[in-house]
Amino acid sequence: MLVGITGLINVALFMVIFVPVSQRLLGVRFGLVRLAIATAITLAVFTPLLKAIAGLPPWPYSAAAAIWFLILCTLLAVLAGLVFLVLAEALVPTGSLPRARDLRRDLGGRIARTRRYLQILRIVVRRGLGPYLRGRRRPGRENAASQAELARSLRLALDEAGVTFVKLGQVLSTRSDVIPASVAQELSRLQDQVTPAPWDEVRAVLSDELGALPFADIASEPLAAASVAQVYVATLADGGEVVVKVQRPGIASVVERDLDIVRRFARMLERNTDWGRSMGLSALAEGFSDAMREELDFTVEASNMVSVAAGRAVATGEVVVPRLYKEHCTRRVLTMEKLDGIPLGNAATAIGERGLDAAGLASSLFECLLGQIAIDGVFHADPHPGNFLLLTDGRIGMLDLGSVGRLDPATREALQRFLLAVDHGDPVAATDALLEIVYRPDVIDEQALERAVGQFMARHLGAGAALGPAMFNDLFRIITQHDLGVPPEVAAVFRALATIEGTIGRISPGFDLVGASRTYASAHVADRLAPDALRRTATEELASLLPMLRRLPRRIDRIAAAAETGRLSVNVRLLADERDRRHLTTMLQQVLLTILGATAGLMAVLLIGTDGGPRVTDQVSLFQLLGYNLLIICAVLVLRVLVLIFRPHHPTGP
Question: Which of 39, 198, 403, 597 could form a disulfide with 381 if both were Cys (CB 3.0 to 4.6 A apart)?
Answer without folding.
Answer: 403
